[in-house]
């Protein structure tokens, strides 16, 4: 049993407010030979500087930057140590200090967290969170092996060499403990592939049926290929500022809160713990949760790192009831099951009732708190170091009312060599004020929960 | 008289061109071997090759966790004190906690696909232990017995595997 002491529960506190003002993405695709990684980063950097209605010129904004947090997951993929130095040079930001950030699939979230800490502490007034991944440097099976190096190399990696095989046991166990059907899992895939259909950035858009998902080839039972994210080449940039600079740069800043949690890499080592309660939860809610013999929390069913991150992020932001107070969420749907597991961790449903978030319709556009309108990782991208930044940017644009500007403009589609679908529809929420995103790594080894709040 | 400078010669192997349009893409081979130590866990991996399953236990009376650790750790994460080794009694019988059927594995896989990866609960062990089922179809709650690859050991975690327990 892991028992934490009072000091461990201290809620993080910014020394001053932090704001997100702008973001930039790339065309996410499996293989992008036409650009090198720093050239892809430049594409996202230009979009961030030039297309976010900022009130200063790109060169003037560059003249304000004090710090870069640079996310990239794997030196194996990039095959280039100190990519950060190449990127900072290529963006023309030398000799401003950059720090490379690596926390697996949560790298993007950790990168935003690091940039936010720089602003909150006063180290920087303007910090750039930038992330990238070049997964096409090797073929898919070699890529799967590289990613499986993020399982324990002594005790786990040789047992599958593909990451789906570390989530699949969680899917089996979750279904057994909390009555999750394959159809509900498939609905997550159908939803996110569909939302990706409306995004020019997306790698795996598609109009699928539940049956299509269930009929797609098996990766590791019970997870099918249409339930899994792809490997992606791509980058993302987000600009964070202190309050004064934020309003100088934009009329539509969003206040940022973000916190993280970690947990042992080996899921099987996750001993039973008391569940840290979110502000709207009571201990009575979880009496009887462990009704089945040898059930443990978080065990294979849930992610303590996500719960820990949410515990802090909600308290930092003063959120007392997430489902009522959040207008949208972007979750880490690397696999359908990890998406569903997270509903309990961040309190969209009590533990044990996660499937109801999908089945009730709450998770859909038009529902109470839609999830992954960006298309998520299953539909749009998982260029690992960029992912947690991409998710935050999609939240930012929703609150700023810029979904259509960044997804509906035919010129963006054309610039990526794509045609905007005839039946394109806007997924802009009418009045989004508060959004949350989850950046998640290594079967729950690292998780950040970020919250953006409208500040205009 | 100055010595004549030798001509610097190219001794490499020209990079293979994978595609030339729209961008030039070359092959960049990587092949190397790491030296990886099992460190203080060496007794565990040696034990597998001798047909033994060794776990660790914290004997610090002030520590709250006195169950076995498997995978073993040399030091207790709760009190940070060194632990001691303890062999599990034979036959080692466990219970399937969860499982997965691996159909599409990553590069370098050393098992024939498809196969079942299983996570096994063991009595007195505070953690769960991952392995593979050599034959049969697992289900949650199923009893399994540990087997060891003592002949032609792989010197890796694949030296332990599980089979359905008799009865």
Structural write-up:
- The complex is a heterodimer of chains A (456) and B (167).
- Chain A has 456 residues and is of the alpha/beta class.
- Chain A has a domain at 19-138 and 233-249: 3-Layer(aba) Sandwich (Peroxisomal Thiolase, Chain A, domain 1).
- Helix content of chain A is 36%, strand content 15%.
- Chain A contains 18 helices and eleven strands.
- Chain A has helices at 37-50, 58-62, 75-78, 83-90, 107-121, 140-148, 164-178, 182-197, 210-215, 243-249, 304-317, 322-325, 336-345, 355-359, 376-380, 384-399, 403-407, 410-415; strands spanning 19-25, 67-71, 98-101, 126-134, 218-221, 223-224, 233-241, 254-262, 328-330, 434-441, 446-454.
- In chain A, the strands form two sheets. Chain A has a nine-stranded mixed sheet with strand order 3-2-4-7-1-8-11-10-9, with helices on both faces. In chain A, strands 5-6 form a two-stranded antiparallel ribbon.
- In chain A, a hairpin with a 1-residue loop joins strand 5 (218-221) and strand 6.
- Chain B is mainly β.
- Chain B has one domain.
- Helices cover 5% and strands 29% of the residues of chain B.
- Chain B contains one helix and ten strands; from the N terminus they run ββαββββββββ.
- Chain B has one helix spanning 42-49, and strands at residues 17-19, 25-26, 54-57, 68-69, 84-87, 93-102, 115-121, 128-133, 143-148, 160-164.
- The longest helix of chain B is centred in the first third of the chain and has 8 residues, at 42-49.
- The relative contact order of chain B is 0.16.
- At the A-B interface, helix 6, helix 7 and strand 5 of A face strand 6, strand 7 and strand 8 of B.
Nutshell version of this structure?
Chain A is 36% helix and 15% strand. With 456 residues, chain A is an alpha/beta fold.
Main β-sheet, spatial strand arrangement of chain B: 8-7-6-9-10
Can you name the CATH architecture of the domain at 19-138 and 233-249 in chain A? 3-Layer(aba) Sandwich
What structural category do the secondary elements of chain A indicate?
alpha/beta
DSSP E strands of chain A, number: 11
The percent of residues in helical segments of chain A reads 25-40%
The DSSP helix count of chain B reads: 1
Percent strand of chain B equals: 25-35%
Structural class of chain B: mainly beta
CATH topology of the domain at 19-138 and 233-249 in chain A: Peroxisomal Thiolase, Chain A, domain 1
As laid out across the biggest beta sheet of chain A, the strand order is 3-2-4-7-1-8-11-10-9
> Whole-number radius of gyration of chain B?
24 Å
**Per the principal axes of the C-alpha atoms, what is the gross shape of chain B?**
extended
How many helices of chain A? The count is 18
What does the largest sheet of chain A look like? 9 strands, mixed
Distance between the termini of chain B: 90 Å
Termini separation of chain A = 45 Å
Give helix and strand order of chain A, one letter per element, not per position.
EHHEHHEHEHHHHEEEHEHHEHHHHHHEE
Q: CATH homologous superfamily of the domain at 19-138 and 233-249 in chain A - what is it?
A: Thiolase/Chalcone synthase
Q: Give the proportion of residues in helices of chain B.
A: under 10%
């Amino acid at each position: 049993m892991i028992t934490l002491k009072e000091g461990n529960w201290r809620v993080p506190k910014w020394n001053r407010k932090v704001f997100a003002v702008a973001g930039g993405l790339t065309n996410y695709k499996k293989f992008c030979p036409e650009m090198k990684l720093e050239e892809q980063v430049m594409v996202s950097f230009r979009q961030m500087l030039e297309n976010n209605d900022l009130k200063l010129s790109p060169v003037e904004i560059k003249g304000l930057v004090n710090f870069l947090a640079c996310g990239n997951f794997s030196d194996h993929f990039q095959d280039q140590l100190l990519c950060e130095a190449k990127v900072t040079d290529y963006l023309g930001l030398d000799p401003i200090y950059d720090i490379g950030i690596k926390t697996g699939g949560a790298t993007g979230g950790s990168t935003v967290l690091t940039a936010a800490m720089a602003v909150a502490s006063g180290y920087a007034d303007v910090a750039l969170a930038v992330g990238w991944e070049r997964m096409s440097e090797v073929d898919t099976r070699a890529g799967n092996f590289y990613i499986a190096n993020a399982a324990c190399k002594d005790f786990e990696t040789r047992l599958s060499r593909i990451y789906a095989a570390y989530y699949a046991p969680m899917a089996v166990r979750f279904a057994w403990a909390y009555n999750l059907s394959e159809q509900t899992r498939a609905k997550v895939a159908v939803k996110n592939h569909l939302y990706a259909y409306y995004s020019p950035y997306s790698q795996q858009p598609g109009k699928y049926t539940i049956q299509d998902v269930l009929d797609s080839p098996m990766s590791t039972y019970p997870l099918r290929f249409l339930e899994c994210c792809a490997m992606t080449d791509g980058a993302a940039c987000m600009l964070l500022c202190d309050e004064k600079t934020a309003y100088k740069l934009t009329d539509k800043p969003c206040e940022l809160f973000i916190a993280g949690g970690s947990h042992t890499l080996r899921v099987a080592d996750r001993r039973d713990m008391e569940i840290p309660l979110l502000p709207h939860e009571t201990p009575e809610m979880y009496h009887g949760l462990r009704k089945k013999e040898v059930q443990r929390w978080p065990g294979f069913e849930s992610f303590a790192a996500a719960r820990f991150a949410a515990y802090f992020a909600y308290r930092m932001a003063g959120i007392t009831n997430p489902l009522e107070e959040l207008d949208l969420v972007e979750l880490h749907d690397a696999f359908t099951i990890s998406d569903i597991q997270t509903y309990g961790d961040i309190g969209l449903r009590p533990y044990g009732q996660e499937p109801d978030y999908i089945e009730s319709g709450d998770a859909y556009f038009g529902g109470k708190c839609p999830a992954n309108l960006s298309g998520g990782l299953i539909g749009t991208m998982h260029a690992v170091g960029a992912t947690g930044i991409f998710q935050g940017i999609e939240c930012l644009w929703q609150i700023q009312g810029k979904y259509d500007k960044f997804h509906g403009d035919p010129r963006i589609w054309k610039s990526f060599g794509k045609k905007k679908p005839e039946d394109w529809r806007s997924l802009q929420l009418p009045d989004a004020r508060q959004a949350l995103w989850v950046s998640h790594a290594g079967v729950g080894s690292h998780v950040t929960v970020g919250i953006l709040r409208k500040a205009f | 008289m100055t010595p004549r400078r030798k001509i610097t010669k190219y001794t490499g192997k020209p990079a293979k061109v994978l595609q030339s349009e729209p961008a030039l893409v070359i092959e960049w081979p990587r092949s190397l071997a790491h030296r990886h130590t099992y460190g203080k866990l060496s007794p565990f991996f040696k034990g597998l090759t001798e047909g033994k399953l060794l776990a660790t236990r914290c004997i610090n009376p002030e520590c709250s966790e006195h169950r076995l650790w498997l995978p073993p750790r040399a030091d207790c994460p709760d009190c940070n004190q060194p632990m001691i080794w303890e062999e599990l009694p034979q036959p080692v019988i466990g219970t399937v906690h969860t499982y997965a059927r691996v159909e599409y594995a990553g590069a370098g896989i050393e098992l024939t696909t498809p196969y079942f990866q299983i996570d096994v609960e063991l009595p007195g062990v505070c953690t769960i232990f991952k392995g593979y089922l050599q034959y049969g179809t697992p289900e949650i709650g199923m009893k399994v017995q540990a087997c060891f690859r003592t002949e032609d050991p792989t010197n890796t975690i694949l030296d332990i595997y599980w089979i359905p327990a008799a009865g």
